[in-house]
Design goal:
Helix content: 25-40%
Distance between the termini: 31 Å
Order of helices and strands: EHHHEEEEEEHH
Shape: globular
Number of domains: 1
Radius of gyration: 15 Å
Largest sheet: 7 strands, antiparallel
Strand content: 25-35%
Structural class: alpha+beta
Number of helices: 5
């Protein structure tokens, strides 16, 4: 069994990453949602349309490269300090993508804990232990020497930010995106 959890994001970095997790994680819960900007009532949440073609492409890239993630998790380099996977969870009619960290992999599925505070779900919360099969992963990320590896949906969400939002995000996350 492989397990890695050396680097913990600072509180500021965790807040910024939580923003991205919410941006990427909130699935449509009541019809198609077209907004791409934070709403005044939910400043850290950007809802995405469930049929977002570019997001599906980013998720497909993550799926095609999951072997790279498993290899890194199984034999981490000293510079690889944080590992997480993203998966879609359902709670009745609600669905949300959540990040899972503090991972181990037994050759069949990942075990870890929910790394962000779910916005729409009531059946799981931050820190809950869950298992995820490789086929259920919608993204993965490794922080290697303070650089993001993988994180295809994070990259897409960042690309969609305004220049001001992107600069603020980059200042707060604690890692760089090439």
């Amino acid at each position: 069994m492989t397990s890695v959890a050396r680097w913990r994001p600072s509180a500021i970095a965790f807040r910024a990453m939580s923003l991205v997790w919410l941006v990427l994680g909130c699935a449509a819960t009541g019809g198609p949602l077209q907004t791409a900007a934070p709403q005044p009532s939910e400043p850290d949440v950007v809802r995405l349309a469930e049929n977002d073609y570019e997001m599906r492409i980013a998720e497909a890239k993550a799926q095609r490269s999951i072997g790279r993630f498993i290899e890194a998790l199984s034999s981490p380099a000293p510079t690889q300090t944080y590992f997480a996977v993203k998966t879609l969870l359902r709670d009745g009619e609600r669905a949300e993508h959540v990040w899972v960290s503090r991972l181990s992999y037994d050759g069949v599925q990942f075990q870890g804990t929910v790394a962000n505070v779910p916005f729409a779900l009531t059946t799981v919360t931050h820190g809950d232990a869950i298992t995820v099969a490789p086929g259920e992963i919608t993204d993965w990320m490794v922080i290697d020497n303070r650089m993001l590896v993988g994180g295809y949906t994070i990259r897409l969400a960042r690309d969609r930010m305004s220049a001001e939002q992107r600069a603020d995000f980059d200042r707060r996350v604690g890692f760089a995106i090439d």
